[in-house]
Amino acid sequence: MKIALGADHRGAASAKQLADRLKSLGHEVAIVSSLTGDTCDYPIPAYAVGRAVSGNTAERGLLICGTGIGMCIAANKIKGVRAAVVHDELSAEISRTHNDANILCLSADLLGQRLIEKITEVWLTTPFQGGRHARRLEEIQLIEEGRDPSVK
Asked: Nearest Cα to 120, choosing from 73, 70, 61?
């Protein structure tokens, strides 16, 4: 799978380790931000990863910052992005099965590296369930277009 990966300064070390792990599992990882640890405002990598996913140059995106919250807010401003902050394996699974999340946002400060890797593995291997959840994604698309999803 082709994955766009970005991080701010608080997530840089975790992102480097995660990139190595994903590459060892056969994924193609495009790092779209500097992972030097130098100060970086989180909207910049969030935008880069969001554009890669929305523009179909990456199948999925991963963002890591201090809490995952800022990255998620910024990425979700991009049409077609469904970013989710995830703190455990269950929320990773549900973000895929119910919400078809295409960007995973993780906390470098709150999660250890082993959990980051496990959450990512679950998230990457869990398919979208479809069914009643597909209708809800259509409603999200209406919101992105500035339309009221209750009026169809």
From this structure: 61
CA distance 40 to 10: 9
Q: Is 105 a catalytic residue?
A: no
> In which residue are the tokens 């709150």 written?
110
Residue in 9, 40, 65, 72 annotated catalytic: 65
CA–CA separation, 108 and 21 (whole Å): 16
CA 28 to CA 34: how far, in whole Å?
17
Which domains does the chain show, CATH number per domain?
A: 2-144 (3.40.1400.10)
7-39 pLDDT, tens per residue? 999 999 999 999 999 999 999 999 998 788 788
Q: Is 133 a catalytic residue?
A: no
CA distance 48 to 75: 9
- Looking at every residue in the chain, the average pLDDT score rounds to 95
Q: Is the pTM higher than 0.70?
A: yes
With bands split at pLDDT 50, 70 and 90, how would you rate the model's confidence at 147?
very high
User: What is the 8-class DSSP label of residue 151?
Assistant: -
